[in-house]
Amino acid sequence: CSMHCGRASPSRARWPRWLSLIHILGDRSGQDALLAEMSALLDRYPDDKRQAKLLFSMALLADRRSDHASAERLAGQCFDLAERCGAAWPAAMSKGELAFIQSQVVGDQLGGIEHLKVGLQWAARIEDDAENTRRYTEAQLMTLWAMCSTMLSRIDEARDMLQAVLARGVELAAPRLQLGALGQLAELAAELGRWDEMADWAQRMRCLLYTSKSRRSPARGRSPSPKSVSWPTARMAEAIVGAVQPIRLREQRSESDGA
Hints:
Oligomer: single chain
Shape: elongated
């Protein structure tokens, strides 16, 4: 038994690094190779909890390829396995993936919220660690819930949830959480015609992006990648701020013409 554990330890030591690579690599073929290597190692050294994490990573990759049928199937398999072996993080995240597909692809926001309710129950069971995994995961699921609430025109509920996510993101020094909340808050303000408020949220996005580029996030251990987060989001924030002034001018002219 000790020999088996000794042989298994190298793969286990490399596992966290592989998970982070899978989630940030832009090269889909590179992700496939890493997943295949992880799958081969799990065939040699079975571990249900790590198998559940692998299934979630596979579901996420399928989603990024817009293969929603495969993503839904893999996320369902992930949750079933995680539920059986008591793996809280993959159980919570797989429910988040199922909620996204149900609400954004199928168009059933109420069904998505039901998935999120279960996901949050599992997230509460995560043993928090130095990376604040439990609180970070809860905030991710809350962000998805806010998206569902917005599509159901539950504006106050969505705003309250997003502001809670934003506060947690600030507390955890997690730029990605903050950017997700700020972007949705800007969209909410736009839907309500609150252009000054929309510009304020976009300005906060822009400031966050430029300040976070030069420092690492204690919660996640890395700052946003210019290719994956900072650059496109920065351009979006700039566009929002730049668009507000013409909108204000048009409204002022319309009011003057009406008078």
